[in-house]
Amino acid sequence: MPLVSNPAIWHIDYWELTFRLVLALVLGGLVGFEREMGGHSAGFRTHILVCIGSTMIVLLSMYGFAEFANEPNVRLDPARLAAQVISGIGFLGAGTIMRNGFSVSGLTTAASLWVVAAIGLSVGAGFYFSASVATALVVICLFFLNKLESVFSKSKTSREILLNIEHKTARLHDIIDQMNGYGIRIHKIVVENENNPTGEEYVQLVKIRMQIKIKQPKRFEEALMFLTSLEGVQGLETVSFAS
């Protein structure tokens, strides 16, 4: 007596299989195209490959072992292979995340890879509508909300502060706390060490480069006065740059 009442559920014809893979290519490509236009590390081809790969894994999990469906000691679990995609894609996403000092970039691209993997799983399982809606929402989030975010960020002035201070008096966490107290948002900090000749002695300096955004110019002037009053300050420069 067969253990599966409807063995046909474990089979898929070639046309349906091809359709799911092509749909995965299209949906993954839509998300990847937006990332490619932004010059991100994971772009058009990467997102397509992730989406097709996720779809293929679901297809394999659901239909690849159909010949064993009626074996007495075999229990098919279509979700087992698919579940590994969600955790496995994290390793690929981690490769897109870059850290430079206090600045972290690539998180959105890593998230888009994770979502594309989920879209591929949905396509492979036959959830075409949910996969299509999810793709549309992701593209809206990445493209249109990014434009909206840029509009709001234009209300803030972008500056770069270059502070040279003696190593023995430099307390970076105190400087950050004080700048936050003045309502100044620090986007990126780069710290460099160098030796500066002073008379017959060499004084070890710390060069702190801060990229900031400010809303209130008056508070910015107060912050500059605070920085110049710090003990051991050897120089202070400010530069405006485009957001």
Automatic annotation (TrEMBL):
Keywords: Cell membrane, Membrane, Transmembrane, Transmembrane helix
Domain of life: Bacteria
Signal peptide: none
Subcellular location(s) of the protein: Cell membrane
Pfam families reported in the protein's UniProt record: MgtC
Transmembrane residue ranges: 12-33, 45-66, 78-97, 127-146
GO cellular component: plasma membrane
Record-annotated MgtC/SapB/SrpB/YhiD N-terminal domain positions: 21-150
Bilayer topology: Multi-pass membrane protein
Protein family (similarity comment): Belongs to the MgtC/SapB family.
UniProt protein name: MgtC/SapB transporter
Organism: Paenibacillus ferrarius
Species classification: Bacteria, Bacillati, Bacillota, Bacilli, Bacillales
